[in-house]
């Protein structure tokens, strides 16, 4: 206890260190203003919101008819190709049957489909996905699909021959109106290549649709759904959405997707982690303060008085760590807890779309940021003890924590390297600010630059914790062994 | 004239006879080549025209290599303050600009020498690694040669970049004096603007920041392809960094003149 008080007195009586802690907190709180310099980007097109409250891609080519009450539609799909698929289709190109509350983007739906690389799927309301029979379709191996609406429930089945049927899933669409739009659809998300995406469109060959139940007598109508929305990337040059009779069936070409939207589809959207950008400048300041806590003792020979005061050396180091971590955590937590709601409100006020964040995830980002800085401070203290020189110690810590993150964000470096850097270096701790969700049914650009980290939030922080524990152990051993 | 020469000799003796600088120069070369090798090993070019600027890839080790250079330059000034050697130095050599100028010259030559070694090492390592990962003549990468104009510019420019970072750090250390705070400022100035730029959504401001930030602008000199898409040209970018370095050195000299030690 006396030790803690001694270290606390040292800390609070050096004006530069106190100022440093305050500056770090202010940087977290005020730094996002740097990003607002140019105002909001132009974002005229609306972001479709799905029934779960999150942003969705809701663009597809829809060959439809009204269906009143219950009914069933059955169709065979014998081909699915896409422009950039090299004769096949991009993995999440989709063609199949859909029942939807309406053509407006973000409407409830249930669909059964064949995909380019993930077999038969039953999906509903954008975020739900269930796998069926694997394998691609071709003229030799067509796939029969069947969708049955009965009240609020929709059942999807598939068959290799049109006779033996396997149920893929039965889903509930609560509050589905009596009259819905139903029919064939084709969608094709952008093709992911390295660190970029390229527009794509898929074409599918359908057999003749067989209908039972309350179908309208009007003929099939073809429409592009969601053409003007922010998450619809449009068609590649030279293609458009279309449907044409082919034999007794249809050939349908479509682009877009029915899926949750990620940063790849909504690059201008802001995430809660974005407004904690002051973490980096704050980190540099805190690293300097924490390093100086031990290196100045060496520089002025104060370390001899500290050590000869009769305490075990490890406890002195622990007391310093407790003081610097405690101060950092407290000030930065206050700053982060104020910064997130404040800046998200400002950003929303500017008309920028903000990805929804649960209060739990926001709290984790705030507490995690404060914890990250506190752990980094202990790391810096330990490295300072090992190296005993401010300049080398500060550089080591900054190069270990900030530089890997910077390299992970550098666009011309290989993407595999970005994943490696944010998994194995201390920069992995930045994952604690991740609030975006990745979906297995979307091939997005899940890169650290877009706010997606390879490790879960606390695991990322644990990586930094591991390095810190190691450095602290080495520092403790050296402090005990070496002369001051 | 002989005064200036004497101060250069004094600085050279300091650099030569203390163990720190030699280690830092060695670390500079090792980490530059090592990071360049790691990046070259991770990069792949599976098909024709994968649009990768290999010179940038190979020379990316300088992202890390500039850190020990900055430490070296900061310690050349702050080290004198922490041991009060600065009083002896200024008593023997009262002209402040001459002292900083001599330090800049000696550091510049040492960094240029080790930087050239590091760049050559990176090129050699990449020459072995890259063809194994699809960077072959069939894919549009005929192999790097220093006889090639853009490659020579990227290589020479990288050495110049390291020298300018050393001078920037020297100036910053003369301004701030405390080594921890000085190195914090320098690394902050180098590493933070590229991170901030990521956050800026406005395209004009984004471009302007990339044109002004010392690291983003200075490393434009490494570009060998797609020059017209760069926010700033290779030499102009290096010029921006040179302006930062000159500014820091001038500020350091001015403060050194008007301050007591």
Supply database-style keywords.
heterodimer, A: 484 residues, alpha+beta, 14-stranded antiparallel sheet, two-stranded antiparallel ribbon, 18 strands, 24% strand, elongated, B: 261 residues, mainly alpha, 11 helices, globular
What does this protein structure show overall?
The complex is a heterodimer of chains A (484) and B (261). Chain A is of the alpha+beta class and 484 residues long. Chain A is built from 9 helices and 18 strands. Chain A has helices spanning 2-13, 15-30, 279-299, 302-308, 313-349, 359-387, 390-409, 415-424, 457-481, and strands spanning 56-58, 60-82, 94-100, 109-115, 120-124, 128-131, 143-150, 153-159, 166-172, 179-187, 191-193, 196-198, 202-206, 210-215, 221-225, 242-246, 249-254, 258-260. In chain A, the strands form 3 sheets. In chain A, strands 2, 3, 4, 5, 6, 7, 8, 9, 10, 13, 14, 15, 16 and 17 form a 14-stranded antiparallel β-sheet that branches. Chain A has a two-stranded antiparallel sheet with strand order 1-18. In chain A, helix 3 packs parallel to helix 6 and helix 5 (313-349) packs antiparallel against helix 6 (359-387). The longest helix of chain A is centred in the C-terminal third of the chain and has 37 residues, at 313-349. The longest helix of chain B has 34 residues, at 96-129. In chain B, helix 2 (19-42) runs parallel beside helix 6 and helix 4 crosses helix 5. The model of chain B has no long low-confidence stretch (mean pLDDT 84). With 261 residues, chain B is mostly helical. Classes of the chains: A alpha+beta (484), B mainly alpha (261). Chains A and B meet through helix 3, helix 7 and helix 8 of A and helix 2, helix 4, helix 8 and helix 9 of B.
């Amino acid at each position: 206890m006396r030790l803690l008080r001694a270290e606390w007195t040292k800390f609070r009586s050096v004006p530069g260190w106190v100022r440093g802690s305050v500056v770090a907190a202010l940087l977290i709180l005020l730094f996002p203003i740097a990003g607002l310099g140019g105002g909001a980007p132009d974002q005229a097109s609306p972001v479709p919101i799905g029934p779960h409250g999150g942003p969705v891609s809701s663009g597809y080519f829809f060959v439809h008819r009204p269906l009143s009450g219950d009914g069933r539609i059955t169709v065979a799909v014998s081909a699915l190709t896409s422009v950039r698929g090299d004769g096949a289709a991009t993995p999440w190109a989709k063609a199949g049957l859909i029942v939807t509350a309406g053509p407006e983007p973000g409407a409830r739906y249930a669909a059964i489909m064949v995909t380019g690389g993930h077999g038969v799927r039953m999906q509903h309301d954008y975020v739900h996905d269930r796998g069926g029979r694997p394998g691609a379709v071709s003229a030799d191996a067509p796939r029969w699909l069947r969708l049955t609406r009965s009240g609020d429930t929709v059942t999807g089945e598939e068959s290799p021959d049109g006779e033996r049927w396997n149920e893929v899933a039965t889903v509930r669409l609560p509050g589905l109106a009596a009259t819905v739009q139903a029919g064939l659809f084709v969608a094709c998300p952008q093709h992911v290549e390295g660190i970029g995406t390229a527009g794509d469109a898929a074409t599918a060959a359908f057999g003749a649709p067989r209908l039972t139940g309350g179908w309208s007598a009007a003929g099939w109508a073809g429409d592009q759904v969601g053409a003007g929305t922010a998450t619809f990337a449009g068609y590649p040059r030279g293609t458009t959405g279309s449907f044409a009779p082919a034999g007794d069936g249809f050939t349908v070409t479509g682009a877009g997707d029915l899926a949750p939207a990620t940063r790849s589809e909504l690059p201008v959207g802001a995430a809660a982690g974005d407004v904690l950008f002051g973490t980096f400048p704050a980190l540099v300041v805190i690293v300097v303060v924490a390093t100086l806590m031990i290196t100045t003792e060496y520089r002025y020979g104060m370390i001899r008085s500290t050590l000869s005061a009769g305490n075990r050396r490890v406890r002195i180091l622990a007391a310093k760590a407790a003081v610097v971590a405690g101060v950092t955590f407290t000030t930065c937590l206050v700053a982060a807890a104020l910064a997130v709601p404040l800046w998200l409100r400002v950003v929303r006020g500017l008309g920028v779309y903000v990805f929804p964040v649960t209060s739990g995830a926001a709290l984790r980002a705030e507490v995690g940021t404060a914890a990250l800085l506190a752990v980094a401070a202990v790391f810096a203290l330990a490295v300072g003890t090992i190296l005993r020189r401010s300049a080398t110690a500060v550089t080591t810590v900054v190069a270990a924590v900030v530089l890997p993150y910077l390299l992970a964000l550098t666009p011309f470096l290989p993407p595999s390297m970005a994943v490696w850097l944010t998994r194995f270096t201390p920069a992995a701790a930045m994952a604690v600010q991740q609030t975006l969700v990745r979906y297995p049914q979307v091939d997005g650009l899940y890169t650290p630059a877009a706010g997606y980290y390879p490790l879960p939030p606390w695991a990322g922080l644990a990586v930094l914790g591991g390095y810190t524990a190691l450095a602290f152990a080495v520092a403790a051993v050296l402090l005990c062994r070496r002369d001051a | 004239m002989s005064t200036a020469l004497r101060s250069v000799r004094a600085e050279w003796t300091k650099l030569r006879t203390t163990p720190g600088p030699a280690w830092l120069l060695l670390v500079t070369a090792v980490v530059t080549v090592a990071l360049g090798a790691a990046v070259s090993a991770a990069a792949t070019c599976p098909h024709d025209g994968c649009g990768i600027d290999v010179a940038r890839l190979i020379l990316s080790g300088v992202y890390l290599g500039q850190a020990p250079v900055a430490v070296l330059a900061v310690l050349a000034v702050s080290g004198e303050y922490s041991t009060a050697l600065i009083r002896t130095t200024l008593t023997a050599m009262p002209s402040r600009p001459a002292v900083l100028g001599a330090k800049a010259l000696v550091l510049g030559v040492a960094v240029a020498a080790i930087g050239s070694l590091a760049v050559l090492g990176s090129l050699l390592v990449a020459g072995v690694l890259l063809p194994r990962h699809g960077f072959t003549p069939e894919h549009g990468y005929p192999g790097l040669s220093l006889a090639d104009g853009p490659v020579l510019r990227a290589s020479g420019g990288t050495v110049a970049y390291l020298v300018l970072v050393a001078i920037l750090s020297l100036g910053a250390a003369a301004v701030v004096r405390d080594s921890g705070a000085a190195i914090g400022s320098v690394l902050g100035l180098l590493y933070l603007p590229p991170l901030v730029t990521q956050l800026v959504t406005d395209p004009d401001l984004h471009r302007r920041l990339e044109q002004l930030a010392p690291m983003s602008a200075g490393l434009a000199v490494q570009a060998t392809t797609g020059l017209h898409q760069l926010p700033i040209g290779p030499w102009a970018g290096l010029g921006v960094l040179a302006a930062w370095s000159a500014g820091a050195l001038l500020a350091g000299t001015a403060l050194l003149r008007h301050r007591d030690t």
